[in-house]
Amino acid sequence: MKQIIFKTGYAALLLLISSFCCNAQLTPPFHVRNQYTMQNYPEQRYSDPLRTLDEIPDWIYENIKFPEKAYQYGIAGIEQFVISATWDGRVFITSGLNTLNPAFEEEIKDVVSKAPRCRFAGNSIEDIYKLVKIDFTAYIPDDLPSSIQCVGRHLPPRFTLRGERMQNLKGKELFVKWISSKFRLPKKYNLTNYSDTISLYYTITEDGKLKNPHVEGCKNIRIQTELEKLMASSPQWQAAITDGKMPIPVSIKDRIIVRTDEHGKNVPFEIYTDSVCRNSTSTPTDPNMIVLNPEKCIQYIGENKSFVKVIRDSLTVEKKVNFVGSFVVEKNGAVSNIHTETTDSIADGVITALIKQSKWVPAQQGGKPVRAIYAFVGTKLPPAKYVYAVPPRGKPQNFTEYNSFQEDEKARWAYFKKAYPQVNAVIHGSRKFRFLSSDDYKEALIMRGLPVVEIKKYKVRK
Questions:
Q1: In angstroms, what CA-CA distances link 349 with 2, 141, 310, 379, 429?
Q2: What residues does 323 pair with on adjacent strands?
Q3: Domains of the chain, start order
Q4: Global pTM?
Q5: I need a labelling partner for 161 at 20 to 30 A (CA). Which of 210, 278, 389, 422 fits?
Q6: What's 225-275 look like in SS3?
Q7: What backbone torsions phi and psi does residue 232 show, to the nearest 5 degrees?
Q8: For 265-286, what is each residue's pLDDT tens digit?
């Protein structure tokens, strides 16, 4: 076990990867990496030496171009995505693409699909996943007049299903899920065992409205008409925004698979995945090698929650604890090569014990179980401290009251933190603890075993 303070970039990369991948897979130890030799890449044996994944982003930057189709949209900025490589060296996109328009997405996919074969080098998560940032404004030809709006980085438009938590990078997927739940084809059409891959086009405006919906590539005009009507009735979105919080329009293309069963009933829509965004389905040449990006990822058995959630629920801490680790899941589901790093020695022992007693469904590649690495990262916070007291006064009504309110708030929090240092474990909005004024709330909290600190007096010191 090693005491550490985590690097922000490392945790951020893990979180970005986990937003799109079922499991983040780490690179194997040094002795395993020796398996990645020229014998694993017969088609490359007599050509140029294999590149490392580290070199691929630079290769992409050298080969990317500003697509002509992008001019019609009048906007460009920085597009970000994550790449990795299959066990046999093919580069593929592991994250979703949320570009400003379909032209940029097509250009990125085309270039990545032509990337040279590569191998992994290194022993950390940064060595198997590479974040690529393309500033398309830098690729606009100098000899062409341009009125393109340059926006830098941006957050894609967000769509939320009723009753579900908003996900910043899953707007398109949730919209397809909404369409699928609402799509109804009249029985009179009697379309049994129907299957079609179609493209949905639409624009999310600066005010979050869906405009210009249309469907291309559909074999059935009735289905096309129904889908376009449904898209036009879309609920409100949250518009895409720049780093400066400025709303911007975004044009989107989604490819989906529409199916009906043998009775003509709708099957939930599937999002079509291009080959450049898919892992390999071939079987490894060495049955004992560790497959870094398996076709089917490792699955945790037991309790209807993730393994990281199990870790959090099993830890009891008095201060914030960060933890990260990895281990190999063997072909029979057993675990080996356990490695954990935490900011608390007691938590490290608990996590190691949980790993040893955990049960897993092994990863699969080419239809056969393979060895793979499971990586995790998380944070455990201490229990919330509740303050039983009268809440602060109401919101300010004008600028003068606002300044007075801010000063009073700062003084109040400074007093509370000094008088009650134990009440500092939870952030509720911008405050460091919660205010409660009802005796019923106080009694309920005590019955639940939650700590309650009663504040008897408060005086602002001038």
A1: 12, 58, 15, 16, 33
A2: 342, 378
A3: 2-153 (3.30.1150), 159-260 (3.30.1150), 299-380 (3.30.2420), 386-454 (no CATH)
A4: 0.65
A5: 278
A6: HHHHHHHHCCCCCECEEECCCCEECEEEEEEEEEEECCCCCEEEEEECCCH
A7: -65, -20
A8: 888 999 999 999 988 888 887 7
Q: pLDDT tens-digit profile of 357-370? A: 999 999 998 889 99
Lowest-confidence pick of 21-35, 181-195, 327-341? 21-35
Strands 118-119, 51-52: pairing kind: parallel
Separation between Cα atoms, residue 422 and residue 407, nearest integer Å: 23
What CA–CA distance (Å, rounded) separates 421 from 320? 15
Note the pLDDT of residue 165. Answer: 65
Number of H helices, E strands in the chain: 11, 25
| DSSP per-residue codes, 261-325 | -TTSPEEEEEE---GGGS---SPPSSTTSBPSS-SB--EEESTTS-HHHHHHHH---SS-EEEEE
Residue 346 has pLDDT above 50, yes or no: yes
Q: How far apart are CA 18 and CA 128, in angstroms?
A: 13
Burial group, residue 188, by CB count within 10 angstroms (0-12, 13-18, 19+): exposed
The secondary element (H helix, E strand) that includes residue 406 is helix 399-419
Rounded distance, CA 323 to CA 2, Å?
Answer: 11
Confidence of residue 197 (pLDDT cuts 50, 70, 90): very high
Average pLDDT over residues 285-312: 84
Tokens 């629920």, residue?
A: 313
